[in-house]
Specification:
Length: 112
């Protein structure tokens, strides 16, 4: 699916099953909650914490939940994610095209 198709699919789902979008403020709070759930899984999978009994290693689900709410916010604010992402990619490319390549912290030679 393209970003446009994802936005259309979420909008269809909301109109068919969701009654209406939650308010923007509620969706911002839900997005924060979902990012916290993603952080918990990442901390346990890649960090020093271990999974508690009953917790699942469901990184893919948590990433998709974050995407879902982000798309909801984009739809209800009239944001075309395809266009917004293209602008962000261009901005990052022009601003950071040499920054990371020349960063000794990211260069293997900088770690030796």
């Amino acid at each position: 699916m393209t970003l446009k198709e994802i936005q259309e699919e979420v909008d269809r789902w909301i109109k068919t099953y969701g009654v209406r979008y939650f308010s923007e403020l509620t969706n911002m709070a839900v997005l924060t909650e979902e990012v916290g759930e993603l952080a918990r899984v990442v901390a346990r999978r890649y960090g020093d914490q271990s999974f508690k009994p009953g917790e699942r290693d469901n990184l893919d689900e948590e990433l998709a939940d974050v995407l879902w709410v982000l798309v909801c916010l984009a739809n209800q604010t009239g944001t075309d994610l395809t266009q917004a992402f293209a602008r962000t990619l261009q901005k990052k490319t022009s601003r950071d095209k040499d920054r990371h390549i020349n960063n000794p912290k990211l260069n293997d030679n900088g770690n030796k």
